[in-house]
Amino acid sequence: MGISGSQHEKLSIALRDAFQTPQRFLQFVKFRFDKNLYDITIAEDLQELAFDLIREADSYGWIEELIIGARQSNPKNAKLFAFSQEFFSNPYIANSLPPELAKRGSLEKIIRAKNSFINVTQWREKLGAIEAQVCRVEVKQSSGRYRPLGTGFLIGADVAITNYHVIESVHKGNIAPEDIILRFDYKQLGDGITVNSGKEYELLLGDWLIDYSLYPPDEEKREPKENELDYAILRIDGEPGNQLVGERGSPKRGWIELPKNDYNFLADTPLFIVQHPQGTPLKLAFDTESIIGLNSNKTVVKYRTNTEPGSSGSPCFNIDWELVALHHSGDTLYENKTPQFNAGTPFSAIVSRLREQNKLANL
After folding, report:
1. pLDDT at residue 111 in the model
2. Does residue 94 surpass a pLDDT of 90?
3. Do residues 224 and 344 lie in contact, with contact meaning Cβ atoms separated by under 8 Å?
4. What pTM does this model have?
5. In this structure, are strands 159-162 and 180-184 parallel, antiparallel, or unpaired?
6. N or C: which end of the chain has fewer CB within 10 A?
């Protein structure tokens, strides 16, 4: 995919805004592409430097990798986010959507769907940060390959959360904790070419399970009780939340803050889910009229946003990127029936349980 003159100018502006110094450019090119920037250009002026770098990438067929790599090193940069949407014939976000949702509309429709204005720059920056905080939960196999189990995400520097049913086999001793991998930054271009295989972290052996809550027995076909929230909070070896997402000068990965207040799940309002459906690279699904409602004891919120196996443990957000629920399943209450909804645990229920057990301070 080549780059036009106007796109060259826009990308140059975005790169200069993101990296700002020749040293940052030098580190970025070495870290992401194992290339020496000064084999490409001898320019010190930022405008000339960016021009030469883009021309080199375009000439030798790695312009797409340049754009995605720059975004990975600067996930909160709004100019890079906006340019990547414009550049790819199917923008990154739209490409990440299941077909049913992609037909409903684009980011423009999401913004219109709410009865108030949102700050688009802040919205993009928040999504960029969240991308780095969601991981694929995997198990090592004897073949040396990895089998995806579900999705998880950081809620502390060294703390992740997923569904209990995702790591149940580990808790029961059928899988060794040292065989579990949390893979961050596993992303893909719209054409299906993987540009980042991700960063791996392991569980902290001997102290990996901070807290958990079971799910209702499948054979009972009922909704959860107050102590059946289907979550597991994991301690990670290392502190991915405090590590840089790229080369020196890039931001720290960070983590998703737990909500401090209950969320009012209004019917027919938007819900976003950042997930690894079928174990695939990171994707975003949304529905602008998603919320169906809460059950009677507020342990389940039902919604229409699409998910697939592998999405278990994904974070669910409102339109302002506030964490509101932990996705856990589709409609399993009735057999031989087309699924009517997907479902998750409201985070207010999880936070309340943690507070009752005096475990919030451990996160």
Report:
1. 40
2. no
3. no
4. 0.79
5. unpaired
6. N
Q: Which domain holds residue 28?
A: 5-88
3-state secondary structure (DSSP) of residue 95: helix
Asked whether residue 359 is domain-assigned, the answer is: no
Q: Give residues with Cβ within 8 angstroms of 114, minimum separation 6.
A: 269, 270, 319
pLDDT band at residue 252 using 50, 70 and 90 as cut-offs: very high
Structure tokens at 160: 């992740």
Ramachandran category for residue 135: left, alpha or beta (phi over 0 → left; psi -120 to 50 → alpha): beta
List beta partners, residue 344.
301, 327
Burial of 61 (0-12, 13-18, 19+ CB in 10 A): exposed
Residues 64 and 146 both lie in one domain: no
Crossing angle, helix 63-73 and helix 46-59, to 10 degrees?
130
Q: How high does pLDDT run on average in the chain?
A: 85
DSSP 3-state of 8: helix
| CA distances in angstroms from 152 to 81, 259, 274, listed in the order given | 24, 17, 10
Residue 350's pLDDT band (cuts 50, 70, 90): very high
Sequence-distant contacts of 23-27: CB under 8 A, at least 24 apart: 23/249, 24/247, 24/249, 25/49, 25/50, 25/53, 27/247, 27/248, 27/249
More confident of the two residues 213 and 90: 213
Q: Which helix (H) or strand (E) holds 297?
A: none
DSSP class per residue in 55-94:
HHHHHTT-HHHHHHHHHHH-TT-HHHHHHHHHHSSS-HHH
Contact 76, 253 (CB under 8 A): no
Main-chain phi, psi angles of 137, to 5 degrees? -90, 125
Number of structural domains found in the chain? 2
Q: Does 109 reside within a domain?
A: no
In a domain, 332, yes or no: no
Per-residue pLDDT band for 88 (boundaries 50, 70, 90) equals low
